[in-house]
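Structure (tokenized):
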């Protein structure tokens, strides 16, 4: 199973187009959106290329391949534009290895405030806009960073889970962080 992770699109059409091109090229089966999909939010500037209706229209073409959760900037009005569900605060994904992957945005659950997880389980979240892929205690913490508003000097990035490897990549193909889940 190959999963592609993106977070914090914030309604930016150029970032969404770049993300979907990378997804198409990746060969991943599913696109996991970790929230803050359409709205830029009150604490962020309006991104260049801000066009939530166009972002929704583009993402809707991938609806049957998307797993999405609600971010702190997402609302029921946003859901009205999207043809895939995104109002859940979290989702569980059972991987082929039997490991559980807890998918959330990061404002309710995150690396510091985890749900009950077993040894070897993973939590994937966005919200901080800072990439992470590491074993923390006996669970894996994964954050693909942000495609629109990266922080702490990082480039816009996305994440992948393939061949028991969690990786965060830039759109130029550079690996930012990586860890093995085996």
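Design, position by position:
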């Amino acid at each position: 199973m190959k999963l592609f992770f993106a977070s914090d699109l914030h309604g930016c059409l150029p970032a969404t187009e770049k993300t979907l091109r990378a997804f198409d090229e990746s060969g991943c089966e599913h696109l996991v959106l970790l929230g803050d999909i359409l709205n830029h939010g009150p604490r962020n500037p309006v991104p260049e290329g801000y066009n939530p209706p166009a972002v929704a229209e583009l993402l809707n073409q991938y609806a049957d391949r998307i797993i999405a959760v609600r971010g702190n900037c997402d609302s029921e009005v946003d859901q009205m534009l999207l043809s895939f569900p995104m109002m859940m605060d979290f989702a569980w994904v059972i991987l082929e290895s039997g490991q559980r992957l807890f998918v959330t945005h990061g404002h309710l659950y995150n690396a510091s405030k985890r749900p009950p997880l077993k040894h070897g389980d993973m939590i994937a979240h966005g919200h901080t806009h800072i990439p992470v892929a590491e074993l923390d205690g006996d669970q894996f913490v994964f954050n693909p960073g942000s495609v629109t508003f990266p922080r702490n000097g990082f480039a816009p990035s996305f994440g992948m889970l393939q061949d028991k490897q969690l990786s965060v990549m830039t759109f130029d193909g550079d690996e930012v962080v990586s860890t093995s889940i085996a």
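Reviewer-requested clarification: The chain is about 15% helix and 30% strand. The longest strand covers residues 157-162.
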